[in-house]
Design a protein that fits this description.
The complex is a heterodimer of chains A (850) and B (468). Chain A is built from 34 helices and 23 strands. Chain A is an alpha/beta fold and 850 residues long. Chain A has six domains: 178 residues, Rossmann fold, CATH 3.40.50; 62 residues, no CATH class; 177 residues, Rossmann fold (3-Layer(aba) Sandwich); 79 residues, Helicase, Ruva Protein, domain 3, CATH 1.10.8; 174 residues, Rossmann fold (3-Layer(aba) Sandwich), CATH 3.40.50; 91 residues, Helicase, Ruva Protein, domain 3. The chains are: A alpha/beta (850), B alpha+beta (468).
């Protein structure tokens, strides 16, 4: 049996395009099984006619069909006669006359014929059907093909008592119990072989046959399964030309015809729908995308058919991508040229599957689409569309993974399956992803000519992923890896301005400048998940929103450009002028006491500046995490704020703000609350300082969630290295214990010791506070305050409690203020104002009374 | 499992078809030809019979010259009028034959009445004349010699008339009437010879009168008999001719499609009923014609009365033949529909077919083969148990590898449906035997000429006689 393809074979018949020698089954499936087909000869055929021609061209002498209405029927006399005995056929039927027999009145039919009845299904039973088909299949004398056009219905509706014999018969055929090269062609409307296998499995009476089909599904060689999808460009082109020649259909623009055909293909509409549409169009309108759209036949939009390369050239940056694709194209073209001349006899065809590594927003999806178009233009894929899949689209926690993955693959057939963060498949703790990988590998093998897979994600994780599976690494060779670097600040700036232009906005110079600053800052502070162009797109959208809200453009109003005022609030910190280090240190100097702290901080600033000088990439120098050790009220928060400013001034933190937290801010009450709570605070503190007061409170006992907060915190500190400074504050002794028990990042933290204030310092703090509040005071007031503070400090020490230093001073000031208020309000009204800002000694509480 | 299916054709449906087709069985009557044939076969008889009568009249007229004057006076007028009667009868019979009137026996009765009335009138006339003569003779009675001479003349007349009477088959017509008259004549002759003539005059007168009346009676009866015989003969001959004319059935233009060139034979299709009927008519005709043992007038009249019945029987025979043909045709029709159903829906193809023993009156057999599986079905359509009863259909399933009962029942269902769709005949079937009849598998020998026919016994009598 030859497998020469006839003119009738449609291009969309993929996979097994004809019966295979030695294989008694040829399965055809897909939405096209009941469509009409246009062959290379521009003829439109029904599925049965098409199959007849294909089988006839393949050398089958007898082609038999079996349907629901007619158990067995023929489409040609030869097949019919081969199924009948020798001898003349009866004459065609005449009214009132017999065809075969003759009686005393010759061929007269005396029985009067009633009016014709509506056609009913054949009364032939499944038993007979099976015996007939079996007889044909086992006959070695005549090479025969049995076609079952609606196999779904056929298997579903077989008489219950005939199920066992049918199963037995199919089993016998599958085991080679057929005559010669006889073949049974089964047409299923199911989209893929897996669905057929599932369908047959659900029928429950065909276990052996189901297994056989399942085996066909996984078999690497020998295509016994063909797919009939929706018509492709070749076939629709033939239909258009056929309609043009036969019915005078005009083409609006010949140069646009390829695009029109692509639009038609994208609609995924069968030929049987297109045929009447085009015929009606003939003589009324010329074929164009617009006319198709008017008729509701172009609902799926297709990007214009501009050349892939031109599109690529227009994209910002992407030099590496452009270089790779150009080279990849030459590799593929060379491979095809060599194959066409038969010079690559044993060489594996160039691999088409690709790996894209890089951060989000670096244009991977866009480039995947281009690769699809490139492959289609090269004739390597029929459609070249891109189906994007996330891990969630492939893996199902309810045991549906194989089906989900297969379904995705079906959608992507003849195009590209783009799997973002593919490594998450192998990182799945339940192992469901592994199942998806297996299905994927099988499908990639089975659909070698119909499926291109592109996996994308972070480079290091992709490496790990490919290393987990030999099959994977074989299919995604290193040479097919395309690295998407982050966009440079200049590219980001260009992309952002381009986005704004596309939104119809003109940018004032100040905005352009501001955006340059912002893009530079974003680039500098970017983390591993920096979303590159996507962030630019989002920023452009936000600017656009701000601009609209500000300018309140009316329909007829004048369009004013976007300005720096339109920069969204949360991007403004990037624009904030940084205080110079000197200024920050001067501020530090003004603090009372804390000499050791001031000294350490100056040294630290100097060291960091030195590091920046030493490093080639100053961006790699990171601000250190710190431990502030000291009693309450010794100025830790104040120093932390200055520290943030100092790091910002040094360029080590972008914002330098301080987020003060305690255990309550980080630890949740219930399972699962802690990590998000911690993460939220960290994100709030990103590019600044996270101050955790009494950090040792996190080290709870037993099943406390505090340890979870610590673990999460450590992870995030690692992840956002360089963008976050964590300062743990607290009593020195307890802090030591905490740091020891959570060895890690904090153990290397810089330690700053905050000594308790001396009485002199306390006095000066008190005076500073009162003055800062705008009060004047009697000369005896400070001394009286110091007396009170001293008494309080001694009292606390006696009670074994910590003296709160500046905080106690602040409390004292507050108490003084209350007493002042009570005293002044007792004065006659006219005197009150004059006394309102003057503190008397009586306003300071008596130490003995506290 | 049922190897053989027996399919019944609904009887009501069957009768409807049969009635439609019954119009074909009309008798053929070629009247001019029939008249010609009757004339040819009966004219000679009529002529010879009439000649006989004429000769007898002539002989009587000759004899009359020797009669005494007084007797001759009475007989002369009678003889003339009787001859006129006879001539009229002759004319009537001839005309009757040409008109082919159906009511023969009625005509005969009218003739008899006419004749009887004429003879009665004649008798009254003769009695009147006789009494005139008697009065004249009474006047001479005193003269002994003249009386004796007259007596001798009457005896001579009596002897003459006795000779004339003897020419009629009087023993057949009026048995026992002649012998007493003969005895009286002998006595008279011996009395006259003994010289007692004058005393015997009255007795001699009476004897002549009796013999004369007897001859008149005989003449009437003879005329009656001859008319009856001629009518019976002619009716039977007509009957035979009608049979001859309907020996073949001419269906041209009466059936939907062309009938075969050779006209079908009624006797063949009626299985000899026509021959049997003809033999009956022939033997009756021979009896009528048998002069050696002539039939009585009553018997002849009875024959005449029977003839319409024969005609009806002939009609029945022809109907029977047409019905049989039609049944044979319907058997092929049914087989055709079944073969169609088997072919169209089940891919059984007819390989061999024909009537058992090549006799169209027998069962029709068709063998159909499923070439892929090798299964075979023999369709057998048998004539009904009565000749006009519906046919019986049997299907003999010879399955290659034993089909299931479900398959057979589906096939039967399909056949029913196809037959119903194409003919309106509703076949119902019942299971007959579990296994097919192996003798029916190879139908070639069954349909060969001369094969023994194993038909079920059937009655040839139609269930109800119908007029076409």
């Amino acid at each position: 049996m030859t497998t020469d393809l006839s003119d009738a074979t449609p291009a969309r018949l993929t996979g097994g395009r004809g019966p295979r020698p030695g294989e008694p089954l040829w399965i055809l499936h897909g939405p096209g099984v009941d469509d009409r087909f246009v062959g290379a000869d521009l003829h439109v055929r029904t599925a049965e006619e098409m199959l007849w021609e294909v089988l006839h061209a393949a050398g089958y002498q007898r082609i038999v069909f079996s349907g629901y209405r007619d158990a067995v029927y023929f489409r040609d006399d030869t097949s019919r006669n081969l199924t009948r005995g020798p001898g003349a056929e009866p004459q065609p039927r005449r009214r009132n006359a017999m065809r075969r027999f003759s009686g005393p009145f010759g061929d007269a039919m005396l029985l009067s014929e009633p009016p014709p009845q509506p056609r009913r299904p054949s009364a032939a039973t499944d038993t007979e059907r099976l015996r007939m088909l079996d007889g044909i299949m086992v006959d070695p004398a005549i090479s025969s093909a049995v076609v079952v056009p609606n196999a779904d219905t056929w298997f579903e509706n077989i008489q219950p008592d005939m199920r066992r014999p049918l199963a037995e018969m199919l089993g016998r055929w599958s085991a080679g119990g057929t005559g010669g090269d006889n073949v049974c062609v089964l047409l299923f409307s199911k989209p893929d072989l897996t669905s057929i296998v599932n369908f047959l499995h659900d029928q429950r009476y065909l276990p052996q046959f189901t297994d056989k089909l399942a085996a066909l599904a996984t078999r690497r060689s020998g295509r016994a399964v063909g797919h009939l999808g929706f018509p492709d460009e070749t076939e629709l082109g033939a239909l258009v030309h056929g309609t043009r020649l036969r019915h005078g259909l005009r083409i609006e623009d010949w140069t646009a015809l390829p695009h029109v055909l692509r639009v038609m293909v994208a609609q995924e509409v069968p030929v049987k729908t297109w045929e009447p549409v085009l015929r009606r169009m003939a003589g009324r309108a010329a074929l164009s995308v617009e006319v198709l759209r008017e008729r509701g036949m172009a609902e799926v939009a297709v990007a214009d058919a501009r050349d892939v390369w031109r599109k690529l050239d227009e994209m910002v940056g992407m030099t590496a991508v452009k270089t790779f694709l150009t080279r990849h194209r030459y590799v593929l073209e060379a491979g095809m040229a060599l194959r066409a001349r038969g010079l690559d006899a044993d060489a594996e065809p160039a691999a088409l599957h690709l790996t894209f590594t890089g951060n989000p927003g670096t244009g991977k999806t866009v480039v995947a689409r281009m690769v699809g178009e490139l492959y289609r233009d090269l004739g390597l894929l029929r459609r070249g569309h891109v189906i994007e899949a996330k891990v969630e689209d492939l893996v199902s926690p309810t045991g549906d993974t194989a089906r989900l993955t297969s379904a995705r693959v079906r959608d992507a057939l003849d195009g590209v399956l783009f799997i973002d963060e593919a490594y998450r498949l192998s990182e799945d703790p339940l192992g469901l992803g592994t199942q998806a990988i297996d299905v994927l590998l099988t499908e990639m093998e089975n659909n070698r000519e119909r499926l291109v897979v592109i996996i994308a994600g972070y480079a290091d994780r992709i490496d790990d992923f490919l290393a987990t599976n030999q099959g994977l690494s074989g299919r995604f060779p290193r040479g097919n890896r395309l690295v998407f670097p982050d966009y440079t600040p200049a590219e980001l700036h260009e992309i952002l301005l381009g986005q704004l232009r596309r939104r119809g906005l003109t940018c004032a110079d100040d905005l352009v400048t501001a955006l340059r600053t912002i893009t530079e800052a974003l680039y500098r502070t970017r983390a591993a998940d920096f979303a590159n162009a996507r962030t630019m797109r989002e920023l452009a959208a936000e600017i656009s929103t701000e601009w609209a809200g500000r300018t309140r453009l009316t329909r007829d109003g004048e369009i004013s450009p976007a300005t720096a005022a339109d920069v969204p609030e949360h991007y403004r910190p990037y624009l904030a002028e940084q205080q110079p280090l000197d200024q920050v240190l001067a501020e530090l100097d003004q603090l009372t006491g804390l000499q050791a702290v001031k000294d350490t901080m100056r040294e630290l600033a100097a060291v960091l500046e030195l590091r920046k000088l030493q490093e080639e990439d100053p961006g790699r120098v990171a601000a250190p995490h710190m431990l502030f050790l000291g009693s309450p009220g010794t100025g830790k928060t104040t120093v932390a704020e200055l520290m943030g400013k100092a790091f910002a001034a040094l360029g080590l933190l972008y914002r330098g703000h301080v987020v003060v937290t305690t255990r309550a801010d980080l630890v949740g009450e219930y399972v699962g609350q802690t990590a998000p709570k911690t993460r939220a605070k960290v994100l709030e503190a990103l590019d600044g300082v996270l101050l955790i007061d009494e950090a040792y409170e996190l080290a709870g006992e037993g099943n406390d969630f505090g340890s979870e907060a610590v673990a999460e915190l450590i992870t995030l500190m690692e992840q956002h290295r360089g963008r976050l400074v964590v300062i743990a504050a607290g009593y020195p002794d307890r802090m030591d214990e905490f740091v020891r028990s959570n060895s890690g990042v904090l153990s290397r933290a810089e330690r700053l010791h905050f000594a308790d204030y001396t009485l002199k310092e306390l006095r000066s703090i008190f005076v500073g506070m009162v003055e800062a509040m705008g009060y004047t005071y009697e000369p005896t007031v400070p001394a009286r305050a110091v007396r009170w503070l001293e008494h309080n400090r001694d009292q606390m020490a006696r009670q074994g409690r910590e003296f709160a230093n500046a905080r106690t001073v602040r409390n004292l000031v507050a108490a003084v203020e209350r007493r002042l208020a009570v005293r002044v309000l007792k004065l006659p009204a006219e005197q009150r104002r004059a006394q309102a800002r003057h503190v008397l000694a009586v306003d300071v509480p008596d130490p003995e009374a506290s | 499992m049922s190897g053989r299916k027996r399919i019944y054709v609904d009887e009501g449906e069957w009768n409807r078809l049969r009635q439609e087709a019954g119009k074909l069985a009309e008798l053929k009557r070629d009247v001019p030809r029939m008249v010609e044939r009757i004339r040819a076969q009966t004219q000679a008889d009529i002529e010879s019979s009439m000649r006989e009568v004429d000769q007898r009249h002539a002989r009587f007229e000759q004899a009359m010259t020797q009669l005494s004057e007084h007797t001759r006076e009475v007989e002369r007028e009678t003889a003339r009028r009787m001859r006129e009667n006879n001539d009229r009868l002759h004319r009537e019979i001839t005309a009757q034959g040409e008109q082919l009137r159906a009511e023969t026996s009625e005509a005969l009765r009218q003739q008899q009445e006419t004749l009887t009335r004429a003879v009665d009138r004649e008798r009254q006339e003769r009695e009147r004349k006789q009494s005139e003569i008697n009065a004249r003779i009474d006047a001479l009675r005193a003269d002994q010699d003249r009386a004796e001479r007259i007596a001798r003349e009457y005896v001579a007349d009596a002897q003459l008339l006795r000779d004339q009477v003897a020419q009629y088959p009087h023993d057949r017509y009026l048995p026992g009437r002649v012998a007493p008259l003969e005895a009286r004549l002998s006595t008279l002759v011996s009395n006259v010879n003994s010289g007692l003539g004058a005393q015997s005059l009255t007795a001699a007168q009476e004897l002549v009168q009796s013999l004369s009346e007897l001859r008149l009676d005989l003449e009437r009866l003879d005329q009656e008999w001859r008319a009856c015989r001629m009518a019976a003969e002619r009716d039977l001959v007509r009957m035979r001719e009608l049979m001859a004319q309907n020996e073949k059935i001419d269906l041209r233009g009466r059936v939907p499609a062309g009938a075969p060139a050779e006209l079908p034979d009624v006797d063949h299709w009626s299985r000899g009923a026509l021959t049997r009927l003809a033999t009956e008519v022939d033997s009756l005709l021979a009896q009528v014609r048998d002069d050696a043992q002539p039939m009585t007038t009553e018997a002849l009249l009875a024959v005449v009365d029977t003839v319409p019945e024969y005609e009806q029987r002939l009609e029945t025979v022809v109907t029977q033949a047409v019905t049989a043909m039609q049944a044979a045709q319907l058997r092929t029709n049914l087989a055709e529909l079944i073969a169609d159903a088997l072919d169209h829906h089940h891919h059984y193809q007819v390989t061999t077919a024909g009537f058992a023993s090549e006799d169209q009156r027998e069962a029709f057999l068709a063998k159909s083969v499923h070439h892929v599986s090798g299964s075979e079905i023999v369709i057998e359509v048998e004539p009904g148990e009565r000749v006009d009863g519906p046919p019986l259909v049997r299907l003999h399933n010879f399955d290659a590898d034993g089909a299931s009962e479900a398959e057979r029942s589906a096939r039967t269902k399909s056949i029913h449906r196809n037959v119903l769709e194409h003919s309106g005949i509703d076949l119902r079937s019942t299971e007959e035997y579990a296994e097919p009849d192996d003798r029916k598998r190879d139908i070639e020998p069954l349909i060969a000429r001369g094969a023994p026919v194993s038909t079920t016994p059937r009655t040839d009598e139609p269930r109800a006689r119908r007029r076409a």
